[in-house]
Amino acid sequence: MGRSVKDFDLPIVYLIVAEDRLTEKREILDELAVTVPLEDYSAATTLNEEQLAAYDIIMDCINFEQSVIFFIDGPGGTGKTY
Ligand SMILES: Nc1ncnc2c1ncn2[C@@H]1O[C@H](COP(=O)(O)OP(=O)(O)OP(=O)(O)O)[C@@H](O)[C@H]1O
After folding, report:
1. Cα of 53 to ligand 1 centre, how many Å?
2. Which among 2, 3, 17, 69 is placed 20 to 30 Å from 61, CA to CA?
Protein backbone atom coordinates (compact mmCIF):
# COMPACT_ATOMS: atom_id res chain seq x y z
CA MET A 1 0.00 0.00 0.00
CA GLY A 2 1.04 3.56 -0.49
CA ARG A 3 3.33 3.05 -3.50
CA SER A 4 2.94 5.03 -6.69
CA VAL A 5 3.34 3.76 -10.23
CA LYS A 6 6.18 6.30 -10.41
CA ASP A 7 8.13 4.14 -7.96
CA PHE A 8 8.64 1.64 -10.75
CA ASP A 9 10.96 2.29 -13.66
CA LEU A 10 8.20 2.17 -16.27
CA PRO A 11 8.29 4.04 -19.58
CA ILE A 12 6.13 7.14 -19.71
CA VAL A 13 3.30 6.79 -22.19
CA TYR A 14 1.83 9.91 -23.69
CA LEU A 15 -1.51 9.50 -25.41
CA ILE A 16 -3.36 12.41 -26.93
CA VAL A 17 -7.03 11.54 -27.17
CA ALA A 18 -9.84 13.60 -28.60
CA GLU A 19 -12.38 14.44 -25.89
CA ASP A 20 -15.17 12.44 -27.52
CA ARG A 21 -12.95 9.34 -27.50
CA LEU A 22 -11.91 9.45 -23.86
CA THR A 23 -14.24 6.59 -22.98
CA GLU A 24 -13.01 4.25 -25.73
CA LYS A 25 -10.90 1.26 -24.82
CA ARG A 26 -7.17 1.33 -25.47
CA GLU A 27 -7.42 -1.54 -27.96
CA ILE A 28 -9.82 0.49 -30.10
CA LEU A 29 -7.58 3.56 -29.92
CA ASP A 30 -4.60 1.41 -30.96
CA GLU A 31 -6.51 0.09 -33.97
CA LEU A 32 -7.65 3.60 -34.96
CA ALA A 33 -4.02 4.74 -34.87
CA VAL A 34 -2.94 2.18 -37.48
CA THR A 35 -1.92 3.73 -40.79
CA VAL A 36 -3.61 1.82 -43.58
CA PRO A 37 -1.39 1.43 -46.66
CA LEU A 38 -2.91 3.04 -49.75
CA GLU A 39 -3.00 -0.24 -51.68
CA ASP A 40 -5.20 -1.76 -48.97
CA TYR A 41 -7.98 0.67 -49.89
CA SER A 42 -8.15 -0.72 -53.43
CA ALA A 43 -7.62 -4.35 -52.39
CA ALA A 44 -11.39 -4.95 -52.29
CA THR A 45 -11.44 -4.75 -56.10
CA THR A 46 -9.19 -7.82 -56.32
CA LEU A 47 -11.25 -10.13 -54.11
CA ASN A 48 -12.63 -13.32 -55.64
CA GLU A 49 -16.36 -14.08 -55.50
CA GLU A 50 -16.33 -15.81 -52.10
CA GLN A 51 -14.03 -13.22 -50.54
CA LEU A 52 -16.22 -10.42 -51.86
CA ALA A 53 -19.35 -12.04 -50.40
CA ALA A 54 -17.68 -12.20 -46.97
CA TYR A 55 -16.26 -8.69 -47.36
CA ASP A 56 -19.68 -7.22 -48.20
CA ILE A 57 -21.29 -8.84 -45.15
CA ILE A 58 -18.50 -7.66 -42.85
CA MET A 59 -18.50 -4.11 -44.26
CA ASP A 60 -22.29 -3.89 -43.90
CA CYS A 61 -21.96 -4.75 -40.22
CA ILE A 62 -19.23 -2.14 -39.80
CA ASN A 63 -21.14 0.54 -41.67
CA PHE A 64 -24.32 -0.14 -39.70
CA GLU A 65 -22.30 -0.32 -36.45
CA GLN A 66 -23.49 -3.82 -35.60
CA SER A 67 -21.50 -5.79 -33.04
CA VAL A 68 -20.87 -9.17 -34.68
CA ILE A 69 -18.26 -11.88 -34.36
CA PHE A 70 -17.12 -13.55 -37.59
CA PHE A 71 -15.51 -16.95 -37.87
CA ILE A 72 -13.98 -17.59 -41.27
CA ASP A 73 -13.15 -21.22 -41.92
CA GLY A 74 -11.65 -22.92 -44.94
CA PRO A 75 -8.70 -25.01 -46.08
CA GLY A 76 -5.21 -23.48 -45.88
CA GLY A 77 -4.20 -21.24 -48.75
CA THR A 78 -7.72 -20.48 -49.96
CA GLY A 79 -7.54 -16.73 -49.28
CA LYS A 80 -9.04 -16.22 -45.83
CA THR A 81 -6.32 -13.82 -44.72
CA TYR A 82 -6.03 -11.98 -48.03
N1 LIG B 1 -8.23 -12.53 -54.43
C2 LIG B 1 -6.92 -12.79 -54.47
N3 LIG B 1 -6.16 -12.23 -55.43
C4 LIG B 1 -4.85 -12.49 -55.49
N5 LIG B 1 -4.18 -13.31 -54.65
C6 LIG B 1 -4.90 -13.90 -53.69
C7 LIG B 1 -6.30 -13.69 -53.54
N8 LIG B 1 -6.73 -14.41 -52.49
C9 LIG B 1 -5.66 -15.04 -52.00
N10 LIG B 1 -4.56 -14.75 -52.72
C11 LIG B 1 -3.21 -15.24 -52.47
O12 LIG B 1 -3.29 -16.64 -52.20
C13 LIG B 1 -2.38 -16.98 -51.18
C14 LIG B 1 -3.12 -17.64 -50.03
O15 LIG B 1 -4.02 -16.68 -49.48
P16 LIG B 1 -4.18 -16.51 -47.91
O17 LIG B 1 -2.86 -16.43 -47.22
O18 LIG B 1 -5.14 -15.39 -47.69
O19 LIG B 1 -4.87 -17.89 -47.55
P20 LIG B 1 -5.37 -18.41 -46.11
O21 LIG B 1 -6.66 -19.12 -46.37
O22 LIG B 1 -5.41 -17.29 -45.14
O23 LIG B 1 -4.22 -19.44 -45.75
P24 LIG B 1 -3.90 -20.12 -44.33
O25 LIG B 1 -5.15 -20.76 -43.81
O26 LIG B 1 -2.86 -21.15 -44.69
O27 LIG B 1 -3.38 -19.02 -43.45
C28 LIG B 1 -1.66 -15.72 -50.77
O29 LIG B 1 -0.44 -15.64 -51.47
C30 LIG B 1 -2.60 -14.63 -51.23
O31 LIG B 1 -1.88 -13.43 -51.54
Report:
1. 16
2. 17
